[in-house]
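hey all, quick one before standup. I had two proteins in the batch that finished overnight and I want to keep them in one place so we stop losing track of which output belongs to which input. First protein below, input sequence then structure tokens straight from the run.
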Amino acid sequence: MSMTRNSLEFAAILAMATTATGLRAMAAGVTLVENGQPRATIVLAERPTRAAQLAAYELQYHIRKITGVDLPMAAETQTATGARVLVGESAATRELGLKSADFAPQEYLIAFRPTGPTSPTAPNTLVLIGRDKADTNRVDYVSGNGFLDLFDEQGTLYAAYDFLERFCGVRWYLPTDLGITYTERGTLEVQGKDVRRSPDMKFRSVSPVYRIPADLCGDTVKSDKPTAALSWREIMLWQHRNRMGGSPRKANHSFYGYYDRFLKEHPEWFAQGYEKTSPKPPQLCYTHPDLIRQVIQDARDYFDGKGIKPGAQAAGDGFALVPMDNSQWCRCPRCQSLLLKEATIGKGEFSNNRASAYVFTFVNAVAREIKKSHPDKRLNVLAYMDWFTPPPFP
């Protein structure tokens, strides 16, 4: 295909115009601090959510560390000087068409809104907003009282941390100020494209964080003189900054409640072959059809909002199917046919595959039925001990 000189010139002009439009879309710069002076105000609703409160405190704290300047905070009914940093839903965000309830679970937005022809008197605006739990109780940033639970909806807080990472260069490598990295500067101007997203991993957790030593290097348990643990406030900030939490999940040994519920009336549901050596069976008989039906019913009851049975482990949209904390499996012929006499992976090690086919045959039997009634729900199981590896079937 050939092009004339005029068509080439037109294409070049069109490209420059398109590029200029794109640059304008990106160049919604917001100056937060200029030459050591505040040039923006953090604006909150009259009654902000706890997520918005903590987001505002964390934003103010980290900008102070970067610039040495405290950005003022104001309620939406108060006068805001300079650019606006709208944190959480408020009348100002609703004017922009942004409401917390319109976001999906864990979703958030970082948005740049410049002065424009439709609102020439409006200041440049940075918006940090997301799906928040509708809880407006007070957060005390100094003491940590009122900090959110990790599994509360807190999209606005996620937006603040993502903003600090993407646009301010902040990182959190360790708990406390020791682990925060950033570049000091007297002027902080931010600009870029809007970011609207939610975490790819819906559940995020690290355990046991309560054993982090206060000096970050001692031993809180085994030493003759154990080191004191890090304060609860610092532990919570560390987890929030790394976005621990999300959609709640539980996956732990989940059938201990069956002893009180069923052992007397249904001893056949429990591990056979231990009558002479153990006061009570160490496991269930995970191939017994009636036991499987009962587990399916317990899971369905939970998903239908009928509560959690004693000893069960469930949270959010997940129900746990985890055997007892031992490898003393049922000795009935059905169960034994699914157990390896010797592990073929991890032989002689704690983590092996001796019971992988056994445990996951049980899990699959429950899963097939739950899929029929609750296809959007989850069943949680550990990769642990004798069932550490995937089962030997698709």
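OK second protein, same deal, sequence then tokens:
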Amino acid sequence: MSAPELELKPLAGLRVVDFSWVVAGPMTTKMLALMGAEVIKIESTTRPEHKNRTAGFHLLNNNKRSCTIDIRTTAGQDVLHRLVAKSDIVVENFSARVLQKYRLGYEDLRKVRPDLIFVSASGVGRSGPQRDALAYGTMLQAYSGRAGLIGQPNAMVEAMGILPIWTDPVTAMWETFSVLAAIHHRNRTGHGSYLDLSMLEGTVSLLPEALLRLSLGGDGTTPGGLSDGESAPGGCFRCAGTDDWIAIAVGTDAEWQALCDAMAAPDLAVEHPNAASRRAALSELNAKIATWCGTQDAVTLEARLRSLGVPAARTRHFGEVIDDPDIRRRGLFVDLPDGRHTTALPWREADTGFRGDLAPTPELGADNDHVFQRILGLSDDEVAALRGQEVAT
């Protein structure tokens, strides 16, 4: 591999053993794979998620290798010890004690790879009285206090504050950052790391405004309301279409004047000339804006408000995002050889446009021979014995 290629693939030469499932872990290991790491996903022929590869599974697990090993067997555990000894990173998000039960916890694996980077993501962390609790994104968004920041649940938005489940991609972001930091640490010191990531804490970390309000004397129980903390007025308002909405955020007196001009409501501009006045009448003003937006075409309104200098953005259906010519030009969405679509790295190398190498999701167990024979050096007879014992299926 040439020097330029190495620069574009900063994790080239690193190997990841991936025990993760659902969203957060697989999204993390996908990012590592796009940056050049060899990711070996440990799968099972008995788990529905692995056998029934959904569209979401393909989106999160392309560009990886698939190896089927039964971790419940001593022989399977021995094979995984050998694989970890030749790897750099382990990523897992099982319930607490699952891997320890099968001799695959951090303390077991660091014996075969002392400088191992082991990443464990769980709902509330691997220590404390709730370490064994099952946790899913919707529960964590409520538990984190985020859902409580919604002042007036909107009956037109199903499960507002709970869906979509953003705890998983947020966790994947922190998890990827933590792995990169651990790699940097190991390169400097030669030491590995055990990273204990709490999805709850990762979610709370993205609520700085609520923390600041509490620090300034709030009681922490007052909802944030429909508008963001800096806009007066502002919010997301329904337009005339079937499911068309527009977000408006007024931050200055000039923007307020422009909005009043667009609404043909000069009296509002006179009555509420400054932010303090507008904050005091926030509910009333938002109601007037909502009534007006309900008569407007979202596309036309967005263009008009922007031309007047009012910060505004209509909500786009995802199909529009995929077909956006600028996003397409930048290369975020990729058409794979198998006909499926996927996403590349969420950044690009400016000079080359490189956004990671992408390949289709492998079939279940497609890379068994690569792992068993090329990486571990097992003979044909040894591989046949593993298959005979249903360790590698």
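Flagging for whoever picks this up: The radius of gyration is 26 Å. The mean pLDDT is 88.
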